[in-house]
Amino acid sequence: MSYTTTASSTILYIDDDSDDCLILKSSLEDCGNSSKLIFANDGEEAVRYLNSVSPASLPALIILDLNMPRWDGKQTLSYIKSQPHLAAIPVVVLSTSESKMDKDACAQLGAASYFQKPFHYDGYRSIINDFNRYMKAS
User: Fold this and answer.
1) N or C: which end of the chain has fewer CB atoms below 10 A?
2) Which domains does the chain have, with CATH numbers?
3) What 8-state DSSP symbol labels residue 110?
4) What is the rounded CA–CA span in Å between residue 18 and residue 54?
């Protein structure tokens, strides 16, 4: 499930919850963000995707959940930031976890930012501007 514009404005969203994926997609569209949105169900699937595309097709932003099967968010973040061809991509963590330990670990691993998943649709829309800011900075 994805929608298209240009490769330079691709967002990779790594999350195993299909409802969260649909909410984020809808929020991006409602806020006028026309980026191509690619979904991966876990870190292992995301890494396969990232290693299969050309450098010009790499995403401008990665949004990453923490709690997933197989490769969880921290393992995925650690891998992405250890790879020279991926390390410069901003990774924003979007998780249900409120744990200071999780937030600190993600910052230490190189996450650009950490957001707690909103409980309401409007909450998602309110963080889209932050996502846009990271994409412009990359």
Assistant:
1) N
2) 7-137 (3.40.50.2300)
3) T
4) 27
Q: What are the structure tokens assigned to 84, written together? A: 């020279």
Contacts of 82 (CB under 8 A, 6+ apart): none
Q: Facing residues of 110 across strands?
A: none
User: Do residues 2 and 37 touch, judged by C-beta distance below 8 A?
Assistant: yes
**Tens place of pLDDT for every residue, the chain, 138 residues?**
333 333 348 999 999 998 888 888 888 888 888 888 999 999 999 999 999 999 999 999 999 999 988 899 999 999 999 999 999 999 999 999 999 999 999 999 999 999 999 888 788 878 887 787 777 655
Query: What's the pLDDT score for residue 15?
Result: 95
Sequence-ordered strand ranges (E) for 1-138? 10-14, 36-40, 61-64, 91-95, 113-116
DSSP letters for 23-56: HHHHHHHHTT---EEEEESSHHHHHHHHHHS-GG
- Rounded to whole angstroms, the Cα distance separating 131 from 10 reads 12
